[in-house]
Write a structure and sequence with these properties.
By secondary structure, the chain is α+β, with helices and mostly antiparallel strands. Helices cover 42% and strands 19% of the residues. The protein is globular, with a radius of gyration of 20 Å.
Length: 318
């Protein structure tokens, strides 16, 4: 049976004068699990499979794609490879853990016969965990690699294997057992990546929630290029309170977070579509293509066309 692949289509946000043909539409495949047609994600969805099951059929290469409502934790016990995420490339070798948030364009090239597990979580389930344990949030801010000491690998494998076993049968306490295993994986990973394990106080927790709501709103509306005052009003806080929360939680201003989201989308379209630079500017909310080019150059150090010509990839050595 052939798989009908869904693609992200930006033509609806273009002006009529700049609407692309079907051949020019952005072509970032959107899957459920890799290679499976897009469908609704079940509330609380958790899935575990071996790296071999998903990667061997595709000859150890996972082409760039996106999951709109799923995040990954990937254990590499043996082998290694490279991860491409939003135009950057990171090489890694096992044992290690890879964290991939939802809605991040990502792909992999594994070393043949690499061994490990892929844990997939629905964003609603992950959001619930992070709302109750906000100190774990740094694990899912970007796609990244956490190096795993050799003596910790067997323990991580046991936790993931326990999660897989619990998913295979329905017994009292199943969801609690799964949550305990996942929180253990995340806690060990957080400490290994050197993030602060200091528990946030109540006001800090509120600020984490506020910034998360801002990011969600920006993700849905960044093409409108609304002023920060509009975002603050919609979130029920003052612009000053929003700026303080963003500075403390994200180390960025609200305006910078808005610009970051527009730049992320622009990079995606430059790398994965045939849209012109002007069309990409329209797609991310800029009415003036020249202003968009200056904006992109100011933030990245190179004009959009050069970024596209160079492939956008920055290889970071381990």
């Amino acid at each position: 049976m052939s798989v009908q692949t869904e693609y992200l289509d930006y033509s609806t946000v273009m002006t009529s004068a700049s609407s692309p043909s079907s051949a020019e539409r952005a072509s970032i495949p959107a899957f459920y699990l890799y290679g499976e047609p897009q469908r609704d994600v079940e509330t609380g969805f958790v899935h575990v499979e071996s790296l071999d099951d998903r990667s061997r059929p595709s000859e150890w290469t996972i082409e760039p794609h996106i999951h709109r409502h799923l995040a990954h934790i990937i254990l590499i016990a043996d082998g290694g490879g490279s991860m491409r995420a939003e135009g950057s490339e990171k090489r890694f070798g096992g044992p290690c853990l890879l964290f991939v948030p939802a809605a991040v364009v990502h792909g992999f090239r594994w070393h043949s016969e690499s061994n490990g597990f892929v844990v997939t979580l629905a964003v609603d389930y992950l959001a619930d965990l992070l709302a109750r344990h906000p100190d774990l949030s740094p694990l899912f801010t970007t796609a990244h690699v956490v190096t795993l000491p050799a003596d910790r690998c067997a323990g991580m494998q046991r936790l993931i294997a326990e999660t897989e076993r619990e998913l295979s049968w329905n017994t009292p306490g199943q969801r609690a057992a799964i949550e305990i295993a996942l929180l253990s994986i995340m806690t060990h990973s957080l400490r290994l990546m050197g993030a602060s394990a200091e528990p946030p106080m109540s006001p800090g927790g509120r600020r984490v929630s506020l910034v998360a709501r801002l990011r969600e709103r920006i993700d849905a509306r960044f093409r409108l290029r609304e002023p920060i005052q509009a975002h603050a009003a919609a979130l029920g806080v003052s612009p000053t309170a929003l700026r303080v929360a963003c500075a403390q939680v994200a180390g960025r201003s609200p305006a910078a977070i808005l610009d970051d989201r527009a730049l992320l989308e622009a990079r995606r379209l430059l790398l994965y579509s045939n849209l012109t630079v002007a069309q990409i500017g329209y797609a991310v909310g800029f009415e003036d293509p020249a202003y968009f080019s200056r904006f992109f150059t100011r933030h990245t150090g190179q004009p959009p066309r050069r970024y596209r010509e160079r492939g956008g990839a920055i290889t970071v050595k381990p």
